[in-house]
């Protein structure tokens, strides 16, 4: 049986309506000796049929290393750990600190063998639970007249991936 995440929104937000639902992990990210794979649990392997006809896959995963009440309560951050970036709401950036710890990456598929998808890379930790996969369809990801704030075009600062940068934790 796969890992189960039960999300009780009222519990996470310390009050409010009693909305809850279950999210089942369908696999996990594996990183070993420079090779990155997504291991799909055997009971979900049939769902991979046809994915080998796509060059990329959208991976939704659980940011399990940030699963603390403190990090879930962070609503504003300096994006990318850069204090020169303006204080921004987590819904307006890709911070790993957020109320619902869902990560999203578009990954190049290198191969699929059985229930294992070898990918080029992913912005997730080893053993991160994978909660869904979606084939990447370019026409759905291309928007006309899209715009972004200036900070998005600035270079990323490098900081240890094991921890959120201190400037990412702002209450």
- Briefly note the structural class of the backbone: mainly beta
Weakly predicted, low-confidence segments: 160-167
Helix count equals 3
Oligomer: single chain
Radius of gyration: 17 Å
- Content of β-strand: 25-35%
Count the beta strands.
Answer: 10
Main beta sheet strand tally, sense and closure: 6 strands, antiparallel, barrel
Strand order of the largest sheet: 3-4-9-8-5-10
Q: Specify the helix fraction band.
A: under 10%
For the termini, the CA-CA separation is 37 Å
Question: Would you kindly provide a written description of the structure presented here, covering whatever features stand out?
Answer:
By secondary structure, this protein is mainly beta. Helix content is 7%, strand content 33%. The protein has helices at residues 9-12, 69-72, 138-141, and strands at residues 4-8, 20-24, 27-32, 35-40, 56-62, 76-77, 88-89, 102-113, 116-119, 129-135. The strands form three sheets. A six-stranded antiparallel β-barrel has the order 3-4-9-8-5-10. A hairpin with a 2-residue loop joins strand 3 and strand 4 (35-40). The longest helix has 4 residues, at 9-12. The chain is globular, with a radius of gyration of 17 Å.
